[in-house]
Amino acid sequence: LPVATALGRIMTGVGTLAFGELRGERILVPYSTQLQEDEHSCFSDTTHLDHRHDLIGIRNIWFGTYQSSNGTLDVIGTGLKAVADTADAALSTQITARLDALLVDLQSATLNPFDQAIQGLDTTPGRTTLSLILQGLSDFNDKFSALAADMGVNITTN
Fold it and tell me: What is the Cα–Cα distance from 31 to 35, expressed in whole angstroms?
């Protein structure tokens, strides 16, 4: 594939997972409805882990690394960050900071169990954390889309 096409597909995948899936379907829907049946893993108490690992997958693509569960670094390659650094270093740094902050938020104990985190008033600890995550994923999407535009890459849903 031409580099721009391949990069567009990679960035489309990251953007779709981060915004459409993780933010939209997996967090916003159960946050809005407060229904356990709308959470990603409604038959187990692993939804908070599913969300965290979705973000870890995004970070793996960003950094070009994959670390196995036993702590050994299995893959090191060129990630999107290396490409982004050449296109817009400042924006790349902002995206990295946003991903780091999201990972911290997704590790919050207030999200476990997720079916309890979505309940109650917006001021409860779980919902407050989820609101921060939703805002963070929106911010990531804005920055990631701007990066794609700076790079001349077309992010598409086709």
Answer: 8
Question: Each residue of 68-120: pLDDT tens digit?
Answer: 878 787 888 999 999 999 999 999 999 999 999 999 999 999 999 999 999 99
The CA-CA-CA angle for residues 73, 78, 82, to 5°, reads: 120
Q: Which tokens is 151 given?
A: 């790079």
Tell me the mean pLDDT in the region 29-44: 92
Strands (E), the chain: 65-67, 73-76
3-state helix, strand, coil in the chain (%, to 5): 70, 5, 25
41 by DSSP, 3-state: which?
coil
Tokens representing 50 are: 């599913």
Which residue carries 């187990």 as its tokens? Answer: 44
Angle between helices 125-151 and 89-106 (to 10 degrees): 160
Half-sphere exposure of 14 (CA within 13 A, CB side): 31
- Output b/e per residue, 61-72; b: 16+ Cβ within 10 A: bbbeeeeeeeee
Query: 105 and 136 in contact (C-beta within 8 Å)?
Result: yes
